[in-house]
């Protein structure tokens, strides 16, 4: 396999990072949200092991909790790129935890899932300090973060999968999941697989988690609470795999809803990057409504 990681790194650094900074600097976040930044969920001083917390100012009662995992193709981004999305969710009466994790190629996908589970464990012990009520806990992620959100939830619910990924066991009661333009299949022979096989790396065949990176395979060993999936007509990277994930969830008996907006002007993870637009507010409000009606 030809190593394309330097080219992929250049793409994320040159094109995506600049656009994200431009987007963030042009948007105005709500002023009704308290922000607590850069808490260490592992006490090692690494930025990869930090999380942010968002909750409404003057919160005076326990709030339902959302854990958000950002996307970025497994190799780009931090919690910062989802900051305004998290603030919008928090403004609707939630405590939101947004987490960092190690990136490829410095670490592998297995380490990313281990990081997520350590963050879940930290949240289990600290949510109440930020008005969080873990009896109403939801997990969301976008793009590659959708993979991590779905798989983290399945690891939480399966001793077998935790063993495969050598992950801790937070044993949280996750009531719902939302996956925005998720890429939940990594070992494939389609166009997406050309990219994801680079992420898995040439040593993937020697990993303990070989054979456990596609949603339909992993669903054999775990369960998921109700899942809300989002994609759109302009979601070139993930539209087809989102539909594929929806079919796999239905086949496995998981309660789920697919929110598909056929408008081709809407881009990949549109409701994350611009949570203030009318269409994004409609979709994100429907996600929250779905969770509350099916928890």
Write up this protein.
- By secondary structure, the chain is of the alpha/beta class.
- Helices cover about 40% and strands about 20% of the residues.
- It contains ten helices and eight strands.
- It has helices at about 5-25, 85-90, 110-125, 145-155, 160-165, 190-200, 215-220, 240-250, 270-275, 280-295, and strands at about 35-40, 50-55, 65-70, 95-100, 130-140, 175-180, 225-230, 255-260.
- It has an eight-stranded mixed β-sheet with strand order 1-2-4-3-5-6-7-8, with helices on both faces.
- The longest helix has 22 residues, at about 5-25.
- The radius of gyration is 18 Å and the shape is globular.
- The N and C termini lie far apart (about 45 Å).
- About 45% of the residues are buried.
C-alpha Rg (nearest Å)? 18 Å
| Count of helical regions | 10
Which stretches are low in confidence, meaning pLDDT under 50 for 5 or more residues running?
none
Shape: globular
Determine the N-to-C terminus distance. 44 Å
Total strands = 8
- What is the N-to-C succession of helices and strands? HEEEHEHEHHEHHEHEHH
pLDDT average, as an integer? 97
Strand arrangement across the biggest beta sheet: 1-2-4-3-5-6-7-8
Query: How much β-strand is present in the residues?
Result: 15-25%
Structural class: alpha/beta
């Amino acid at each position: 396999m030809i190593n394309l990681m330097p080219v992929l790194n250049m793409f994320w650094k040159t094109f995506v990072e600049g656009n994200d900074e431009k987007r963030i600097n042009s948007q105005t976040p709500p002023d009704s949200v308290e922000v607590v930044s850069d808490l260490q969920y592992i006490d090692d001083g690494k930025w990869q092991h930090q999380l942010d917390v968002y909750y409404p100012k003057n919160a005076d009662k326990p709030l339902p909790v959302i854990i958000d995992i950002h996307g970025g193709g497994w190799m780009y981004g931090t919690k910062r790129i989802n900051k305004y999305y998290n603030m919008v969710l928090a403004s609707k009466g939630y405590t939101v935890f947004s987490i960092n994790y190690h990136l490829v190629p410095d670490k592998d996908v297995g380490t990313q899932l281990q990081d997520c589970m350590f963050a879940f464990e930290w949240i289990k012990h600290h949510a109440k300090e930020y008005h969080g009520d873990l009896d109403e806990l939801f997990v969301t992620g976008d793009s590659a973060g959708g993979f991590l959100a779905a798989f983290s939830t399945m690891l939480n619910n399966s001793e077998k999968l935790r063993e495969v990924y050598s992950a801790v066991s937070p044993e949280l009661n996750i009531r719902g999941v939302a996956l925005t333009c998720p890429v939940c299949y990594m070992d494939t022979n389609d166009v997406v697989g050309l990219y994801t096989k680079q992420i898995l790396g040439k040593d993937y065949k020697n990993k303990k988690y070989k054979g456990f990176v596609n949603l339909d395979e992993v669903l054999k060993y775990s369960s998921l609470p109700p899942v809300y999936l989002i994609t759109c007509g302009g979601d070139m990277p993930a539209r087809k795999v989102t539909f594929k994930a929806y079919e796999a969830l239905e086949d496995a008996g998981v309660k789920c809803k697919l929110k598909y907006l056929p408008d081709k002007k809407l881009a990949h993870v549109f409701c994350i990057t611009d949570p203030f637009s009318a269409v994004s507010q409609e979709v994100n409000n429907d996600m929250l409504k779905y969770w509350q009606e099916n928890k």
